[in-house]
Amino acid sequence: MTQAYQKVAYYPGCALEGTAHAYDRSTRAVAKALGLEIEELQNWNCCGAMEVKSTDPKLQTYLSARNLGIAAKMGHTAVMAPCNGCYHNLKKAEYDLRNDPASIETEKRISTKAGHASYQPGTVETIHALDWIKKAIGEDGLRARVKKSLSGLKVANYYGCMYSRPRHIFPEKDKGPGSESTLKPHFMDDVLGAAGAVNVEFPLKTACCGGAHTLSDSDTSTRLVLNILTTADACGADVIATECATCHSGLEMHQSRGEKVFGKKTNVKILYFTQLLGLALGLSARQVGVHENFSDSVGMLRARGLG
Amino acid sequence: MSESRVLVVGSGPAGLSAAHALAAAGSRVTLVEKADRLGGAPILSGYARLVPSHEWARDAIGGMVARVEGNQRIDIHRSAVVENFEGSLGNFRAKLSNGQVIGADAAVLCTGFTHFDSVSKPEWGFGIYPDVVTTVQVEQMFSSGAGVRCPSDGRVPDRVAILLCVGSRDRQIGREWCSKICCTVSANIAMEIREALPKSSVYIYYMDVRTFGLYEGPYYWESQEEHRVKYIKARIAEVASDGKRLILKGEDTLVKRPITIPFDMVVQAVGMDPNVDNVHIASVFGIQLDKYGYVRKAPVYSAAGGTSRPGVFVAGAATGPETIDDSIAQGQSAAIAVLAAMRMPVQEAAE
Amino acid sequence: MPIHEKSLIRPENIIRHESMNLQGVDVSGDWSTFIGSRTITDYNEDMQDEIAALPGGEYIHRCWQCGSCTNTCTVNAIEARFNPRYWIYLIRIGLEEELLRDKDILWQCVSCNKCTYTCPRDVVPEGVMKATAHWLELKGHTPDSPSTIFDREFSNQIFATGKVEEGRVLRRFFASTGQALRQPWLESMVIGLVSRLPVKMLLRLGLSAVLRPKTRKWSKSRAAITDYLQQQGRAERRALHLSAGEGTHV
């Protein structure tokens, strides 16, 4: 077990205060159960999600740079974001502030007018909740802490788009053994495997759920989500494990919409990976916020003696 | 004037050519080679028949090796590298890894290139599927006499795809150059496969075909007119597998339709990277590299064959992707540059 | 001769002959005259530069037409007309009329970044799709797409308060696109949730609609962003040769 990331800054982001509250609750519960310290960024702002970049990507860089600057000011060297959107945007800002003169200039200009310091790239490392658990505890550490093995629960691990694309904003990935792959990510498989889950061979790990257009182009999103859900069903998965607030609510919403509007019923359940991990660590279904999910997994978990 | 002493580093086509030319012109040459034998990439990587002579590499380059090995004016150090290099034009001193110290008036770097490692492009399946191979591996299949067979089970491939620009012209992986010779080599390999396996079909997936200069006729057109090699304008996005055969995915951009086509073997036309040791070589010899990592050339109109340091010369693929024939020509040209520099009054050289 | 590329047949080019007899053979029916009208007669020489001037479009000139973007494209897999590689070609050459044939679907890019991941020339096709969709709107070729309306609603909330409250975005989006908030599928999902949530949680969710989340001391950031946006907006309109009143979409 490494000593990295025992104490990190925590950036929940807007979704985790709203529709993805279960992700926030389970992340905090898992941190507590594992004895890892997380400190929420003080007075953070929205990362810009997938929307601000459509107005101007340089504004998204500013928004994330402000958050990174807060982490630095609080004395942290790493900030952990569970939401793929937040994680992606922090990484993107770090990359742009190293490489894109126009982004650097815009960030300086707005920061100065807003009366706070510019963020210096390289000061704070952005990590995903997966990096955090994998590096701070590791598979062996998790196995030693599992109280209630997921014992054979069949899981399709779904990573989505923003965790690994485009590759140039994730320079630490694709570095051979031990590092994450941008093409076939495996950190969630590793973590849940250590918690006793059986990871099914799921070909759509990094497929797109249409999250950017969940509401503005619902039919496209429903078709994309149904593809993911039916494939997970066909792979024999009991549950899709998610690591992204947008993906998670997209899957839930369009599972419902797919059934009501397209007449296509799918059975697979949808849970945040932190919820599954928390259950394995002996937390109750309520402690990891299963009741806050739109998708109802209570019966499935109860039948398996989990939570 | 006493006889000059010249250090030549690397014994590929450029180094063999420079060493021979300098010795023939009366210099004493110290040839230092990192590998345990001479010949460079064509010999060490087992190339088959060369472009454009169609001679076997072991005969053509082997002949150059024999000529250098038989020359008493050339002192050869195999399995050795230069560890330290100091002094100035007319008075250099090199320390080798085998402990020897060599005096030299000038040095010629013929340190070559490194084949692109396809593992950096996981989407094309190299290292994942055994039947995805590189042009170098196909060269070895021919030169070893084993013939072109699928590595997975030894079967003769019915259908072979050659993907151009693997590790070249790709900003995703920081390789913005064209490797110059892969198109022609690929056309050559395609024709050789069609000759060896007349029942097979060979497809070349291209973005542009750069069989430059005189290669237009004997490679680009002959491969199509005589050997029925098919050229398809598409950059393959992904190599997958259906469990039995490889599946190529891409867009046929001329008909605006997606491709999902099975193949038995996929050959990646790998590009030419800067020598992986270039950063080290540059620091030992006190020379500059260009933005891609190749050895920076001195201005060609005034100082052809030179580097950023007077007295240190360069030839061949050390300065960027190069053909074998041109590397040989540059080796000879660097030899002339060395001889000219040593006859030049010192103050003139300093200008 | 059989027609191999049915996509080349366009409805506006079909001529119907109810009854036509050629040398004793009845050839009545639909005649496609696509060959005649497909002649290219001009290029829009400004189009590439205009799109390159919009955020995301900066690198369009790098494209070498390899098709990696189209092949990996999530939307292309379900809608063959959605072809980023082809659109980039049309923009670079200036074939505006051809591009406009697809103006109603171009905004549908889902930003999955598969194209940007694979593009060997680092064109950032995802950004080009956004820039092109905005170009179509700014030039008046299309009304603001649902995506643009959503993004604007969302972004404006962030610019105003520093944070986003999803319920508010949802309500305003449905209102501005003229849709009822009570979509049956949304309703059934919410009812399922409500039956499982404790009263305290429900109160919290309800309250967040009243007590909007905010970043404290945001007013200076807001002013700086607004100032930046106004300046960018002016620069964009200049680049697109629009007068001051046109194309004020932000």
Describe this structure in words.
- The complex is a heterotrimer of chains A (307), B (351) and C (250).
- Chain A has 307 residues and is an alpha/beta fold.
- Chain A has two domains: 7-127, Glutathione S-transferase Yfyf (Class Pi), Chain A, domain 2 (Up-down Bundle), CATH 1.20.1050; 146-303, 3-Layer(aba) Sandwich (Rossmann fold).
- Chain A is 44% helix and 10% strand.
- By secondary structure, chain B is α/β, with parallel strands linked by helices.
- Chain B is built from ten helices and 18 strands.
- In chain B, α1 (13-24) packs parallel to α3 (57-69).
- In chain C, strands 1-4 form a two-stranded antiparallel sheet.
- The longest helix of chain C is centred in the C-terminal third of the chain and has 21 residues, at 219-239.
- The model of chain C has no long low-confidence stretch (mean pLDDT 84).
Brief digest:
Chain B has helices at residues 13-24, 40-44, 57-69, 135-143, 182-196, 217-225, 278-285, 300-303, 324-343, 346-350; strands at 5-9, 28-32, 74-77, 82-88, 91-96, 101-104, 106-109, 113-115, 132-134, 159-166, 201-206, 230-233, 238-241, 246-252, 257-263, 265-270, 272-274, 312-314. With 351 residues, chain B is of the alpha/beta class.
Task: Write out key terms for the chains shown.
heterotrimer, B: 351 residues, alpha/beta, FAD/NAD(P)-binding domain, elongated, C: 250 residues, mainly alpha, 3 domains, two-stranded antiparallel sheet, two-stranded antiparallel ribbon
Q: Give me the secondary-structure category of chain B.
A: alpha/beta
Task: Spell the H/E element sequence of chain A.
Answer: EHEHHEHHEHHEHEHEHEHH
Radius of gyration of chain A: 19 Å
**CATH class category label of the largest domain in chain A:** Alpha Beta
Quick one: biggest sheet of chain A? 4 strands, parallel
Which homologous superfamily in CATH is the superfamily of the largest domain in chain B? FAD/NAD(P)-binding domain
Q: What oligomeric state best describes the polypeptide chains here? A: heterotrimer
Helix and strand pattern of chain B: EHEHHEEEEEEEHEHEHEEEEEEHHEHH
Shape of chain B: elongated
> What is the beta-strand fraction of chain A?
5-15%
End-to-end CA span of chain B: 22 Å
CATH fold group of the largest domain in chain A: Rossmann fold
Number of strands of chain A: 8
CATH class of the largest domain in chain B: Alpha Beta
Structural class of chain A: alpha/beta
